[in-house]
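A common beginner's mistake is to predict each chain separately and then try to dock the pieces by hand. The better habit, illustrated here, is to supply every component at once so that their relative placement is modeled jointly.
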Amino acid sequence: MDVLIAGFGVVGQGITEVIRDKQELFQRRFGKRVRIVGAFDSHSCAVDPAGLDPSALLTRKCATGMVGKERLDTDMAQLTEELEYDTLIEVTPTNIVDGEPGSTYIRTALGAGRNVVTSNKGPLALQFGELSALAAKNQVQLRYEASVGGAMPVINLSRELLMGEKIYSLRGILNGTCNFILNRMKEESLPFSSALQEAQEMGYAERDPTYDVEGVDSACKLTILANAIFGMDVTYSDVVRTGIRGITEEAIALAGEQKKVIRLIGEISENRLEVTPRLVPIGHPLAIGGTLNIVQLITDLAGEVTVVGPGAGRKETASALLSDILAILKDEEVRNGAK
Amino acid sequence: MDVLIAGFGVVGQGITEVIRDKQELFQRRFGKRVRIVGAFDSHSCAVDPAGLDPSALLTRKCATGMVGKERLDTDMAQLTEELEYDTLIEVTPTNIVDGEPGSTYIRTALGAGRNVVTSNKGPLALQFGELSALAAKNQVQLRYEASVGGAMPVINLSRELLMGEKIYSLRGILNGTCNFILNRMKEESLPFSSALQEAQEMGYAERDPTYDVEGVDSACKLTILANAIFGMDVTYSDVVRTGIRGITEEAIALAGEQKKVIRLIGEISENRLEVTPRLVPIGHPLAIGGTLNIVQLITDLAGEVTVVGPGAGRKETASALLSDILAILKDEEVRNGAK
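With all components supplied together, the output reads:
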């Protein structure tokens, strides 16, 4: 399988390492290699139809800040269209205004008959229906396990392992940063501002924390789940959303007196598509601490199935991208009857 | 897909209901029907190559205690060999002495080129290697998600969704009855005997609770996981096992003083294949209450991935059998290029 990597930040570098380190698995399990035939970042690109050396790409990016040898004015969308490859790994930064530049890369690749594996929430939270239809029309795969909950395999679990279930509703904690802040506010009786500062110092929160603490990130993920698992046709703006900025120490203490904690919960059900702080009894799975992500699926036969995993991180996100790459390889293998 | 159901107790009846109720799904998703062409219990059988009516089977079993019209001396192994069908659903009771009669049915079906879907721990805990090899030799599938943790999809999660991970170790609570007892002992400061009696009154524990409280059930499930996920070649007797009969109220109170609970934990790692009561800090995922099952997988890229679900129940076990039936249908679909 030949891949093109669009975006060479933390996630792009992570999946490059994983592709380098898992060649033995690709070979043993599928008798195939996964070759990186192209990679680009904002201002440079590297291309080699015979396969690029992953370590060389990582070293150059680290040393020069660029994945390519020199700063170029290459039209990356054109490169995405014209290069010969099988699967686009689209890992540019999330943009929830118009999804760009990821949306263009994904659309171009699908249109050119390539599979797409992405961690990018923007295009999916804004144009899920259009992009899915484009993939179906071109008989290629669009996979996005990495876009929700990092290494927590919620999408493939719901769509593949729970394929036979009627999933009535879903509840979950989809943003590790908010969970860390709420947990620290309770544990140390800290005000929001101090807990946020701690999260920033530990690298969990960005300098501008709006995207996390206002529930935007959670709402994007909830939108993807609503489309992918519930077959809804919704975008990010359909989510009713309240963040955690308004949560006071007093509210948390009061909840504690009732043996409850406050958590930022995303919920999808017949009448609800909402991210909001809610009271959760201590001991309930959703009262989880740390930066973990958790999703509970409420189904007709299996009852409540819960999955917990690290919601972010270079290696963890790469792990989810890898699971989608392997799913494509497996599908091709079965299709070719080579089992 | 034509199926033969071996065993018509709680689980056999559960999967019969599910096959009846999910025809619309089979049709919509795969353009296929799943027909029950045969079903048998200890002393009777019903066969119809054109398909049996699931509701009629359920009604007759309920009214007469038999799935067939009359008590017969049919050789069920011979029936399993000679009937025309695609997949055996083997749901006879677990027997951990020699795996019979399930082992014979599974062996016969695999040998005759049929797929097998089973919830039966005995054959897998005793003859995993032999049965897997037989399935591979005959190029058919042997699937057993229902044998461990009911509706908790741990096997398919590990083998399919986490295919790319190096799984270093596994820890889990695999028996809901023991967890209920340990939890009640703590919550109500009950001695073991009273908590056990309560579990029996609520239908969680059998009149002879040995299989649960001595850790036999957990050890069987751990054996299956060790073979299926870690590629070990072990049987039930390789598991180091301690049950919960010896746990005193005092031990639980002492653990509580250290903010810990006692849980019956199964662990698989390089040097360990063990079921034993262990101290777990309150707030840790494994400190879960109720009759839930939980498994944590510790992996190279995804870190710790945890899955929680109902470990038993008619509907829940049927749900796991259904997921395996659907996996076979999906595989055939992809193989036939009908996607």
